[in-house]
Amino acid sequence: MLHNSNEIKQHFNLVKNKQKYYHDKPSTNQHKKLQPGDEVRMAPQNKANVWSPAIVIEHHKSPRSYIVESNGTKYRRNHRDLRSTTKQANSGTQLVCNPPEEPQTETKLTPNKPEPKADISTDSQPYTTRHGRVTKPPNRLNL
């Protein structure tokens, strides 16, 4: 069975162009460009769970990187590690809504369901759980 070399080349070029299309397709996660002076939060470093406030100083020469300043120290951070925020959020003076005041009258709430009682059994008898598993307590110090 002979194959036409032109058809094979066309097929490979078609496949290659299809791969190129999907490779060059812009991602759906397009970030807004940050400007110098923008307020941001930096991702936690060294397994800390606190996003620290920072200010963008300049765009770094490498793509997607920025020079930011936090607590007097300059850092280079990738855009994925920065989140835009407001000056009010970074200053720590966020407004907190006051909870509504409760009425001054005393009301006693009655629960709809009785609280389950802890059933601590000293028996060493097997029992069936609510899921159908039969369990037998261990035989400990039966003197």
| Largest β-sheet summary | 5 strands, antiparallel
**Backbone shape:** flat
Strand order in the largest sheet: 4-3-2-1-5
**Annotation, overall tally of beta strands:** 7
Helices and strands: which structural class? alpha+beta
Per DSSP, what share of the residues sits in E-state strands of 2 or more residues?
A: 15-25%
Order of H and E elements: HEEEEEHEE
CATH architecture of the domain at 39-91: Roll
Outline the low-pLDDT stretches.
93-99
Q: How would you sum up this structure, described in words?
A:
Residues 19-39, 70-143 are annotated as: Disordered. Residues 85-96 have a biased composition (Polar residues). This protein has 143 residues and is of the alpha+beta class. Helix content is 17%, strand content 22%. The protein has a domain at 39-91: SH3 type barrels (Roll), CATH 2.30.30. It is built from two helices and seven strands. A five-stranded antiparallel β-sheet has the order 4-3-2-1-5. Strand 3 and strand 4 (73-78) form a beta hairpin.
